[in-house]
Amino acid sequence: MRVAVIQMSPNAEKAQNIAQARGLIESLVAAQKLDLIALPEIWTCLGGTRAQKFAQAEVLPKPNGKAPLAPGGQGGEAYEFLRGIAMKHNIHVHGGSIGELDGEKLYNTSLVFSPAGEELARYRKIHLFDITTPDGTGYKESATYGAGDQVVTCLIGETRIGLAICYDLRFPELFLALRRAGAELIILPAAFTLQTGKDHWEVLLRARAIETQCWVAAPACTGSHHEGVSGETRYTYGHSLIADPWGHVVAKASDGPGWAVASVDKTYMARLRANMPVLEHRVLEHRKLT
Questions:
Q1: 53 in catalytic set
Q2: For residue 24, what are the CA distances in angstroms to 99, 144, 210, 256, 267?
Q3: Residue 41 among the catalytic residues
Q4: Mapping DSSP to helix (H, G, I), strand (E, B) and coil, where does residue 270 land?
Q5: Which residue out of 45, 53, 125, 214 is catalytically annotated?
Q6: How far is CA 27 from CA 23, 24, 35, 84, 174, in A?
Q7: Which residue among 41, 58, 80, 141 is the active-site one?
């Protein structure tokens, strides 16, 4: 399976961000034959005010689990853009994550589409980014978004995909749950901060790949955006990458918008798992230690 992670520099204007994503995807698919492309976290509206986030969010169609939506679609602008790209290029699309409006709640939600435009999976980010970075900058994702509560996987061809988003990366129990659910490739779209990313991004992605013996694909936002009413400038780290089940980084994006591409080799993964069956060796799950 040929997989591409797309790196974007989005802002709070959805139409501009869709245009940027379209340009990157069209250039990418013109250059390479791919099976799956993945976008970053919250690429439709990064930054801005709480009101802007709600205004740019979309009410998602009820998932039917079977046939594609009717021609013309039923989703919002970003939803239909992702479906349309999948159908136009006969490719699987992981839509990174977008703002999902459900009643009075907003969720940070990933969507996966088949080449037929069928929605294969929907995942709401479980772990919300309520932290203070070393320079004193505060982030409180829970002030805007609700938290999901479901571990989600889906099949793309014969490969089972596990879904996670950004701050989820710091919680290995989620990744273990994805491995137990059969995940072979875990996709983690992100908008990692520059401060945390420069020290933790790559090492955590490699650790999750090693622990789960899964391929890990991480499309990320890069560059600056303006946050909140104050318009404070904040920076995302970028460095989108793909890591193999041994923890090697096999592809990485350069600075600025772009992409990284790699082939996911399931035979290599199966050999690693057979030679080092760490899932079966998890002693703490089988007996109490004293």
A1: no
A2: 21, 29, 30, 12, 31
A3: yes
A4: helix
A5: 125
A6: 6, 5, 15, 16, 34
A7: 41
Domains of the chain: 2-285 (3.60.110.10)
A 10 A CB-CB count for 37 gives 30
Please report where in the chains the tokens 């802007």 appear, as a residue: 52
| pLDDT tens-digit profile, the chain (290 residues) | 999 999 999 999 999 999 999 999 999 999 999 999 999 999 999 999 999 999 999 999 987 644 444 445 679 999 999 999 999 999 999 999 999 999 999 999 999 999 999 999 999 999 999 989 888 888 999 999 999 999 999 999 999 999 999 999 999 999 999 999 999 999 999 999 999 999 999 999 999 999 999 999 999 999 999 987 778 899 999 999 999 999 999 999 999 999 999 999 999 999 999 999 999 998 776 666 65
Active-site residue identified among 166, 184, 214, 221: 166
Q: pTM for the whole thing? A: 0.94
> Other CB atoms closer than 10 Å to residue 53's CB: what's the count?
21
State yes or no: is 166 an active-site residue: yes
